[in-house]
């Protein structure tokens, strides 16, 4: 946390090395979060790109009130929302033209995953209702507390917990009752 | 439950990484955004220097006039000059290049006001930068208002280099000293020069101020405190650049002069500041807390030093993935804040064990720490690095933790007292330390003193301090010296809550009753028992003990039947255990447990719920974190359960009063029932 604050301080002064360090520290985790929410790696990479460009663009005014990881995780989630909305729009728009839009159901190799099990888990995650998916990903991968998530989404902590446990149950059921090892 | 835990673990372990090309592409765009954002900010700063935004142009003139007068009066107040002349504009005219105040049309007035506004803005910037040359230039070519403002600013800076230009203006002004603002500025500068002849380093700023340099402590009763100084090289020639102190960064003049606000000191004796230019870092300096006056800082700029080395293991193989940190250390009893300076040096790791640290200031003690999981932390002290020196530390060997037992560095001794919340020593307290398979334990004697010897040096050790009524207290300690004395202060569970409203119960399920809240039990004395664990009954002795304690609480409750005594028990959060909730309920009912029992909620909910204003420990004592050893649930975390089971007693007003034990439980009950 102290290191993050020092990096943010440097970043606000326009220090490019600080930006690189923040990127190196969080890129993998944030990419994983984006993939778990979107499934498509290309889309997830675009989310990562947009989050960091926006982060750098606002560096001069940035003030860190909580954890940097939580902040960046939230940015990823918000960015994913925008993408999903636009993706939905694309689906609706193109239906009339009878074009097929990729919904992300691809083979592991084509999708760019290193192994089938990771692909299976992320695919199954991405098929959960978005609200449950978000809570699971923000809690387990973004390491955010339920109360933190509740505050961000403007809902009660109990609702977050319910979404989380129902999401896990559904995930378990969709995985055939076995967690991926 | 196990499946869910496995699933959670699987998700946590998910890891995806972008390739290097993607990383580079993202970083290129992000850095471009950062640069463009920095440029936009600079432009905005310059244009928005004057924050008053007015739409009525005529209002600009009035406001500008107010600002001029405010600057004049304000600066006067700072330095306690005699009262200003009756008119802001001097009676006697000084030849000026333009006479803006004689403009007659509104357009001319507005234009004049705008130009004046710009010039005053420039003067403020020059004052902040301590730019004596820039301000002196205004004395010879500005309007009368700007010359006055520049004169006051020069008097504020107190630089003798401005005296000649001010005296010339003063002579042109011609009035007697009392009414001559330029003469007053000269007097002010000269009097300061007389006041501070001694070298600045008796206070400790940078190096000694050479004879004849400016030294002008400002009045400290009013106004901000500034540091004024100049950058020079080893030959005392001026160097221009940027000075950074804490969050402040100011440019120097071409002659290296600057003014910067004195930092606020918290717990440090000195703050490390930096000087740099476009080519890199130039040097560092210290601002000392004991400098109550403003003194000039002559910062001798000298080449910075560098370090390099190679991290290897015991087989001389390069080690990668280590963490390397360097910090400024306390020296000669002085503690430096390194926060302002550590960003200046650059640590580079090549990934093959080789590291390099550049831009290191000299003249301070540095501590280099290399750590990696599974290895003993390596600490190296670097003293007296010389200017411009490139020191190669050679091979630094990281030793695996499990090999420690074969090594010889087990020669540290740790002793001290275990004390309670009042600072009184505790006899017969257990003090133990564990590292890997090694175990060191002792007990405090009658005076509360403990002693542990033959401890390994430089290795983080898990320390557990246990005492009756204080539970098990966990801390981590590392011996860096052969003999250390450390007192350990322990607190009863939930000590920070004593006398405050008892925290609410964060439970996941009530086993044998409808949900209740502590608020519903106001008016009664409440006996709360936490740390119950029946999940491994009857095999686990802890479960047997828990049932026994539940039975004891049942008996106490029955004894006080009809009195205003209530009881509640909290079972630990159920992880993977053999007994289900239904079985636990059955056990409770079979044993006639006639008070509410709930299963604790998961850990996360309790985080952040701490009372405000925690009690501070005595100086020189480790205050043991009041966290329990086991992650047993939210309520357990909130109530700092450190031993199982644990009793808490809450009075009729809902205030947590203490943590009784079996011996004094009834005394507590009687006392609170009688209130």
Write the layout of secondary structure elements.
The complex is a heterodimer of chains A (181) and B (675).
Chain A (H helix, E strand, L loop, with lengths): L1 H11 L3 H23 L2 H17 L10 H28 L12 H4 L4 H11 L3 H11 L5 H8 L3 H18 L7
Helix pairs in contact in A: 1-2, 2-3, 2-4, 2-6, 3-4, 7-9, 8-9
Chain B lengths: L1 H11 L7 H28 L9 H23 L26 H24 L2 H10 L2 H14 L5 H11 L7 H15 L30 E8 L8 E4 L2 E4 L5 E5 L8 E8 L2 E9 L7 E6 L3 E8 L10 E6 L7 E2 L8 E4 L4 E7 L5 E6 L6 E5 L7 E8 L14 E8 L10 E6 L2 E6 L5 E7 L4 E8 L3 E8 L4 E3 L1 E3 L17 E4 L14 E8 L8 H19 L5 E7 L9 H10 L6 E4 L20 E3 L10 H5 L7 E5 L5 E3 L6 H9 L2
Parallel strand pairs in B: 1-7, 5-10, 8-15, 16-22, 16-23, 23-28, 25-26, 26-27
Antiparallel strand pairs in B: 1-4, 2-3, 2-5, 5-6, 8-12, 9-13, 11-12, 13-14, 16-19, 17-18, 17-20, 20-21, 24-27, 25-29, 29-30
Helix pairs in contact in B: 3-4, 3-6, 4-6, 5-6, 6-8, 7-8
Q: Please, could you describe this protein's structure?
A:
The complex is a heterodimer of chains A (181) and B (675). Chain A is built from nine helices and no strands. Chain A has helices at residues 2-12, 16-38, 41-57, 68-95, 108-111, 116-126, 130-140, 146-153, 157-174. In chain A, helix 2 (16-38) packs across helix 4. Chain A is globular, with a radius of gyration of 17 Å. The two termini of chain A are 31 Å apart. Mean pLDDT of chain A is 76; it is low at 89-109. Chain B is built from twelve helices and 30 strands. In chain B, strand 2 (242-245) and strand 3 form a beta hairpin. The longest helix of chain B is centred in the N-terminal third of the chain and has 28 residues, at 20-47. Mean pLDDT of chain B is 72; it is low at 44-63, 70-103, 195-224, 291-295, 338-343, 403-408, 612-619 and 626-631. At the A-B interface, helix 1, helix 2, helix 3, helix 6 and helix 7 of A face helix 1 and helix 2 of B.
């Amino acid at each position: 946390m102290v290191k993050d604050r020092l990096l943010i301080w440097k970043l606000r002064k326009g220090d490019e090395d600080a930006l690189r360090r923040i990127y190196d520290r969080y890129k993998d985790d944030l990419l994983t979060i984006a993939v778990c929410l979107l499934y498509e790696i290309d889309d997830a990479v675009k989310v990562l790109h947009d989050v960091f460009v926006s982060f750098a663009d606002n560096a001069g005014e940035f003030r860190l009130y909580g954890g940097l990881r939580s902040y960046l995780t939230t940015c990823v989630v918000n960015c994913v929302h925008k993408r999903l909305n636009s993706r939905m729009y694309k689906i609706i728009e193109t239906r009339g033209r009878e074009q097929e839009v990729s919904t992300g159901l691809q083979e592991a190799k084509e999708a760019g995953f290193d192994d089938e099990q990771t692909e299976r888990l992320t695919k199954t995650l991405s098929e959960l209702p978005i609200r449950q998916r978000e809570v699971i990903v923000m809690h387990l991968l973004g390491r955010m507390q339920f109360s933190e998530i509740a505050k961000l989404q403007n809902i009660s902590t109990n609702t977050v917990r319910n979404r989380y446990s129902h999401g896990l149950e559904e995930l378990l059921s969709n995985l055939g009752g076995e967690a991926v090892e | 439950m196990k499946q869910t835990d496995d699933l959670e673990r699987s998700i946590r372990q998910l890891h995806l990484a972008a390739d290097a090309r993607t990383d580079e592409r993202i970083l290129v765009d992000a850095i471009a955004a950062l640069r463009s954002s920095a440029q936009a900010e600079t432009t905005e700063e310059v244009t928005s220097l004057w924050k008053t935004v007015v739409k009525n142009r005529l209002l600009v003139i009035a406001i500008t006039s107010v600002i001029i007068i405010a600057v004049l009066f304000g600066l006067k107040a700072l330095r306690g000059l005699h009262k200003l002349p009756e008119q802001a504009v001097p009676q006697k005219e000084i030849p000026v290049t333009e006479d803006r105040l004689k403009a007659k049309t509104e357009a001319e007035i507005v234009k004049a006001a705008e130009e004046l506004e710009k010039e005053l803005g420039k003067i403020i910037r020059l004052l902040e930068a301590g730019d004596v040359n820039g301000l002196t230039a205004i004395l010879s070519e500005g309007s009368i208002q700007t010359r006055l403002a520049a004169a006051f600013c020069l008097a504020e800076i107190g630089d003798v280099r401005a005296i000649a230009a001010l005296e010339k203006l003063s002579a042109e002004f011609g009035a007697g000293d009392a009414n001559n603002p330029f003469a007053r500025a000269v007097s002010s500068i000269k009097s300061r020069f007389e006041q501070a002849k001694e070298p600045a380093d008796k206070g400790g700023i940078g190096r000694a101020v050479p004879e004849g340099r400016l030294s002008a402590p400002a009045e400290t009763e009013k106004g901000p405190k500034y540091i004024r100084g100049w950058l020079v090289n080893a030959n005392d020639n001026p160097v221009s650049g940027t000075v950074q102190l804490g969050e402040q960064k100011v440019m120097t003049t071409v002659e290296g002069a600057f003014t910067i606000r004195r930092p606020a000191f918290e717990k440090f004796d000195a703050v490390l500041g930096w000087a740099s230019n476009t080519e890199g870092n130039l040097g560092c300096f210290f601002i000392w807390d004991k400098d109550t006056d403003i003194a000039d800082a002559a910062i001798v700029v000298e080449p910075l030093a560098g370090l390099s080395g190679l991290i290897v293991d015991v087989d001389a193989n390069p080690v990668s993935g280590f963490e390397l940190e360097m910090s400024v250390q306390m020296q000669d009893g002085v503690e430096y804040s390194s926060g302002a300076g550590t960003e200046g040096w650059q640590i580079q790791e090549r990934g093959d064990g080789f590291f390099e640290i550049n831009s290191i200031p000299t003249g301070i003690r540095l501590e280099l720490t290399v750590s990696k999981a599974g290895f003993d932390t390596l600490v190296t002290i670097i003293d007296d690095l010389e200017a411009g020196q490139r020191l190669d530390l050679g091979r630094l060997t990281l030793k695996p933790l499990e090999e420690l037992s074969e090594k010889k560095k087990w020669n540290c001794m740790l002793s001290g007292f275990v004390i309670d919340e009042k600072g009184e020593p505790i006899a017969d307290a257990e003090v133990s330390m564990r590292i890997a398979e090694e175990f060191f334990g002792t007990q405090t004697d009658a005076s509360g003193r403990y002693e542990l010897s033959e401890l390994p040096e430089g290795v983080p050790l898990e320390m557990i301090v246990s005492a009756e009524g204080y539970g098990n207290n966990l801390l981590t300690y590392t011996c860096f010296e052969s003999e250390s004395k450390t007192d350990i202060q322990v607190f009863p569970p939930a000590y920070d809550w004593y006398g405050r409203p008892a925290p609410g119960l964060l439970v996941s399920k009530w086993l044998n009753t409808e949900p209740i809240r502590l608020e519903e039990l106001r008016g009664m004395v409440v006996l709360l028992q936490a740390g119950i664990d029946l999940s491994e009954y009857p095999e686990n002795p802890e479960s047997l003990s828990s049932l026994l304690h539940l039975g004891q609480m049942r008996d106490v409750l029955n004894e006080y039947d009809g009195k205003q005594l209530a009881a509640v028990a909290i079972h630990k959060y159920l992880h993977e255990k053999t007994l289900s909730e239904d079985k636990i309920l059955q056990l409770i009912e079979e044993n006639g447990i006639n008070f509410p029992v709930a299963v604790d909620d998961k850990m996360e909910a309790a985080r952040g719920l701490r009372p405000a204003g925690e009690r501070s420990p005595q100086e020189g004592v480790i205050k043991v974190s009041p966290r329990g050893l086991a992650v047993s649930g939210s309520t357990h975390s909130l109530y700092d359960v450190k031993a199982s089971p644990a009793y808490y007693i809450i009075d009729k007003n809902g205030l947590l009063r203490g943590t009784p034990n079996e011996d004094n439980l009834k005394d507590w009950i009687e006392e609170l029932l009688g209130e």
